[in-house]
Amino acid sequence: MKSVHKILITLTAFILCISILAPRTGVAQSVTAATKKRISIGVGLYTDIWMNTPDGMKTRTINQGVQLFATYNVPFGKSIFSFAIGAGLSVHNLFWNYRFQGDSLNFQFVKVDETKISYKRSKLSMPNIEVPIEFRMKTRSKISVGIGFKAAYNIAAHAKWVGDDYLFNTTNQLRVSFKGIKNLENFSYGPTVRVGYKWFNVNAYYSMTSIFVKDKGPDIYPISIGFLLMPF
């Protein structure tokens, strides 16, 4: 999954450079008005606020994630309204006080006994392929509003632990990733909302599905809040 993160980081940096340099260098002029109306590219950072966490579960204040997408836009005539559909990638991260226990066939996440085990990081990472749709309004003053919905498919969830070696009950430092995480919901979906000015947008997503299969883990789900850069 390092390759997925590298791709996202590289594309994020590229689009950030376009967003910052385009107004100064005239790069934006090379993108025709027709292209701007038909194609949109966005990249964003957000934090996941984890809801419905059980007693004793602690999550980090900032659970940073990243998203990247491209959409094809269908204007409603010459009005300020349009419809968009596309594809994208995102990575949701859950930093918590749970750890992996078991093997790939029979495993579970269990709460860390912090009186016996010390750790620096325990993370569940969930990369997704997404299909977003959105109804948009963009005024002549460059203020835009988008109300939409997106569905996602989990492609390669993994857990990461940095801390005491609990596998062999030693205080030696253990740094390990567990792949092929079971009992996670493959599909997720929920509504989205976005408000922006020019290429800067604030957006939110509400997941209507838990990340775990029912009765196979805590019934938790994220509300994602962050920002998007959409140079066109």
Can you tell me about this structure?
- By secondary structure, the protein is mainly beta.
- It has a single domain, classed as Porin.
- It is 13% helix and 55% strand.
- It has helices at 2-25, 33-38, and strands spanning 39-51, 64-75, 81-95, 98-102, 107-111, 119-138, 143-154, 158-165, 170-179, 187-197, 200-206, 221-229.
- The relative contact order is 0.19.
| Tally of helical runs | 2
Assign the CATH architecture: Beta Barrel
Strand content: over 45%
* CATH topology assignment: Porin
The level of helicity is 10-25%
Distance between the termini: 29 Å
What's the CATH class label? Mainly Beta
Number of domains: 1
Q: Which structural class do you get from the secondary structure elements? A: mainly beta
Q: What integer value in Å does the Rg equal?
A: 20 Å
Coarse morphology: elongated
Please give the order of strands in the largest beta sheet: 1-2-3-6-7-10-11-12
